[in-house]
Specification:
By secondary structure, this protein is α+β, with helices and mostly antiparallel strands. The chain has 15 helices and 23 strands. It starts with a helix and ends with a strand.
Length: 507
């Protein structure tokens, strides 16, 4: 008996929830229809029809409207049946997509088979007191034009045309694909203003910007739109962009395709990956949790012990500025389109590694002098504005400063087709350094000095390596090895030995 009552309760709950979602969907599309009807004329992403539902024509319109939506920077395009295209009055339609067929095949399946690439269009039937409206919701084209039966279409005003007949439209379409970075694509759509402030930590935005928190929500929403963290939709609700979520999300797991982009920090015992002793995933937005992540990493960094006058002193092995820049670079230079992977910081006994999906955008040997740029320039720009990332260089000059202060090797960068990894190493003294560490440090410090207009002599490099003047021969050997590797050169080939100065090979 008890089990039967539980089953009945579950059924009642399902019916209530189903009615709620049905009512909610109907309300959404009624609101959308009302806003679209307020437009003075049909647009390049909006078509009105009455009872014409010729399948071939619908397929061509899907292609045309999908492509035009991209050019117009719209998330979706629409066909509305049951609206007079002259008066925009609701007259109702007899079109029933669930019953419509092409031959013996349901119209939805038939249309889907003719479209390339795949288009996740939807038919929605909306009942109003003036008659039935059918809404066809068509996603904007992404990466490549939408075609129907091998032909690409476009809207020219309110007319459907073949794309190849309008080369200026085709150029504009391809340019739109290039100009729509991942950061500005949709993380979540149809979000109310109140839901925006539930999902995004807007208060932290004002703290980061050193601005007062507005007293009303409309001002907050306006600022979020200005920053491109959100966009207004056709029905009056909002789209949260990937950038808005990645920077300000209270919880990235609320955005299904972004949850793997959360920063992971792993602590290992030893210098291998066989024994992980601690792991933490930071699920808040990068901007609002950056300092917390840095603080956490610093608690895991090993400490060097030193006995001074009977007192035991502990020195941090890696400088905070280097860790901070390492973390910032990892975030802003990652390939956000890569599936199933995200930024990872790994701490070992004597090294730290930062890995992110995506190859390095510049030559490894030019990481210090390169003009700042990123795959995710909009996100990087905001992080620079709030001083989380540096404006100058790529952050590697700041890392090098930190490593210089502790006289440990310059950062090492490895890159492949689908990853970039930055490594910091700690050694107790110079005798433990590998030859490649010495050469890399000599070269990168020479680069650092060159861009900062510092002349590089033997004495300057002695200071970088923490070597006394009496041991200058050690630095001389490092300089020679770096010269032999053709990474540095003499600024003046004819200079006397004591006047020799060095510059990067590319100077």
């Amino acid at each position: 008996m008890k089990r039967l009552e539980q089953q009945k309760s579950s059924i009642r709950k399902y019916i209530v929830e189903s009615r709620f979602f049905m009512n909610s969907e109907q309300e959404y599309y009624i609101s959308l229809i009302d806003r679209l009807r307020q437009l003075p004329v049909e647009t390049e992403w909006l078509e009105y029809k009455m009872n014409n539902y010729e399948p071939e024509l619908i397929g061509e319109y899907i292609s045309a409207l999908s492509n035009s939506a991209t050019i117009c920077n719209k998330e979706k395009a629409y066909i509305l049946w049951g609206i007079n295209d002259k008066t925009h009055e609701i007259e109702g339609t007899s079109f029933s997509p669930k019953k419509a067929k092409k031959g013996n095949e349901e119209i939805e399946n038939w249309l889907a088979g003719g479209l390339k690439p795949r288009v996740d269009f939807r038919f929605i039937e909306v009942n109003t007191d003036k008659g039935k409206i059918v809404v066809m919701e068509i996603p904007a084209a992404v990466n490549t034009p939408t075609s129907f039966k091998g032909t690409e279409f476009i809207r020219v005003g309110s007319y459907k045309k073949k794309l190849k007949e309008y080369p200026e439209k085709e150029r504009k379409l391809w340019l739109s694909f290039e100009q729509k970075p991942f950061e500005l694509r949709v993380a979540m759509e149809n979000v109310t203003a109140s839901k925006v402030t539930e999902l995004l930590d807007c208060a932290s935005y004002y703290t980061l910007m050193k601005l007062p928190l507005p007293i009303n929500r409309d001002a907050i929403i306006h600022n979020m739109i200005d920053e491109e963290f959100i966009r207004e939709m056709d029905n009056g609700n909002y789209v949260i962009t990937n950038m808005g979520a990645l920077l300000l999300a209270k919880d990235l797991t609320a955005f299904a395709h972004l949850k793997r982009k959360a920063v992971r920090v792993i602590k290992y015992k030893g210098n291998g990956k066989t024994n992980a002793i601690r792991e933490q995933v930071f699920t808040k937005g990068y901007a609002i949790q950056f300092d917390d992540i840095t603080d956490y990493i610093m608690t895991l960094i090993p400490q060097e012990e030193e006995i001074d006058g009977g007192r035991r002193l502990e020195h941090i092995m890696f400088p905070r500025k280097a860790i901070r820049e390492m973390l910032g670079n990892m975030i802003i230079h990652q390939d956000l389109t890569a599936h199933g992977s995200g930024p990872v910081m790994e701490i070992f006994d004597t090294k730290v590694e930062a890995s992110n999906p995506g190859s390095l955008l510049v030559e490894v040997n030019r990481i210090i002098d390169t003009v700042p740029h990123s795959r995710n320039e909009a996100m990087a720009s905001f992080l620079r504005i709030v001083r989380i990332c540096e404006e100058r260089g790529s952050g590697f000059d700041r890392m090098e400063e930190g490593m210089r202060d502790l006289t440990i090797p310059a950062p090492k960068v490895e890159t492949g087709d689908d990853f970039t990894r930055t490594k910091l190493y700690w050694y107790d003294n110079l005798n433990d350094w590998k030859k490649e560490d010495k050469i890399r440090t000599c070269y990168l410090y020479t680069c650092y000095c060159y861009v900062n207009e510092i002349e590089v002599a033997n004495s300057v490099l002695r200071e970088r390596f923490g070597i006394d003047a009496k041991n200058m021969a050690i630095v001389s050997r490092i300089i020679k090895a770096t010269l032999d590797a053709k990474l540095i050169k003499l600024s003046d080939e004819n200079a006397a030995l004591k006047n020799r100065r060095y510059v990067p090979y590319w100077a």
